[in-house]
Amino acid sequence: VDGLCRDIAADAGCVALNVGYRLAPEHPFPAAVDDAWAVVASLAREPGRYGALPGAVAVAGDSAGGNLAAVVALLARDHGVPLVHQLLVYPVTDTAMDTPSWREYGSGYGLDAGSLARFMELYRGGADPSDVRLAPLRAPDLAGAAPATVITAECDILRDEGEAYARRLAAAGVPVELRRYDGVVHAFFLLPEIFDAGARARDFAVRRLRAAFG
């Protein structure tokens, strides 16, 4: 996602840190969470070290990165680290793998149910599937989390859990804007040269970030 990070940095007028977190199966959960949180905590402590402005930190990610962004936003809330926004693009928010979109789009739409289940197994590494750092949708309380933008794709196995997370945030009083893009598949956000909706979604994300940064 290096190109995407560069585009967002340029278009949103911000610094973008692309976290090179450790990968499973060699480094199963919670290695990736620990790495993502370490970067955000360091950025919040020493924004000048990274060329960032104090009090203007957001998190963002797509798919598995959306999971990490959502989890880090909750960790930031719990540790008193203020975030101005969380941008979640078709995020993984649960481990249940039982939504209608899992059943409807689990084969033939780019992100295969069997493969994703295997990825989850390798990442989880035997951890409790209800751990909120794996499944933020299962957090008992989302109140106080950073304002959010949630972007989903109609023909995506992850659509329903991303939209469920947006609804949970809204129910907890978190300002959130959910936008579903119809007729597109997982990863459309990364492919604006193929999907017009990808370009529109990026423009929307940039507007939301610019507003959050003020």
Write the layout of secondary structure elements.
Elements: H1 2-12, H2 31-45, E1 58-62, H3 64-78, E2 85-89, H4 100-104, H5 113-124, E3 148-155, H6 159-171, E4 176-185, H7 196-213
Helix pairs in contact: 2-3
Give short descriptive properties of this protein:
alpha/beta, 214 residues, globular, Rossmann fold
Written overview of the protein:
The chain has 214 residues and is α/β, with parallel strands linked by helices. The chain has a single domain (2-213), classed as Rossmann fold. It contains 7 helices and 4 strands; from the N terminus they run ααβαβααβαβα. Strands 1-2-3-4 form a 4-stranded parallel β-sheet, sandwiched between helices. It is globular, with a radius of gyration of 16 Å. The mean pLDDT is 97.
Characterize this entry briefly.
The chain is of the alpha/beta class.
Label the structural class: alpha/beta
Describe the main β-sheet briefly: 4 strands, parallel
Q: Which fold name corresponds to the CATH topology? A: Rossmann fold
According to DSSP, the number of beta strands is 4
CATH class division:
Alpha Beta
Percent helix, as a range, is 40-55%
Give the topology string: H per helix, E per strand: HHEHEHHEHEH
What general outline do the C-alpha atoms trace?
globular
Domain module tally:
1
